[in-house]
Amino acid sequence: MFKKFFDKKASIIEETNPDNISVENVRSFFNISTRLARLICKLAVRQGIFKRKFAVECKNESCGVINVYDTIEEIPEHINCLTCEIEGLNDFSFKTSELNIVEYYQYIEDGDKKSS
Ligand SMILES: [Zn+2]
Hints:
Helix 2 crosses helix 3. It is built from 4 helices and 5 strands, in the order αααβββαββ. The protein has one domain (2-107). The strands form 2 sheets. A 3-stranded antiparallel sheet has the order 2-1-5. The protein starts with a helix and ends in a 9-residue tail after the last strand. With 116 residues, the protein is an alpha+beta fold. The structure holds zinc ion. Zinc ion binds at residues 58, 60, 63, 81, 83-84. This is Transcriptional regulator. It comes from Flavobacterium quisquiliarum.
């Protein structure tokens, strides 16, 4: 039932970017509270419809995302930004605690049918 509900909405979600869905996207899309949006994301992960991701952003403003992880636990305490290192910036090695971590979700087209 939950999956059908999502399929109906999936086309619109896809227009936003299925690989980068934020809790805020879900909240505004369904016009619900942030709390409920979080719950829906959590349920969607459990159902195999969403995949949770953590993007670690570089401290240098003009840069971007250094790396993406599946779990918070996977993120190392120190991260080197390869882009900034290649560009020859002095600041390319960061403490993760100083960086912004963006939580988002990916929509999995074939969710529910778990093959592995
Ligand atoms: Zn960087």
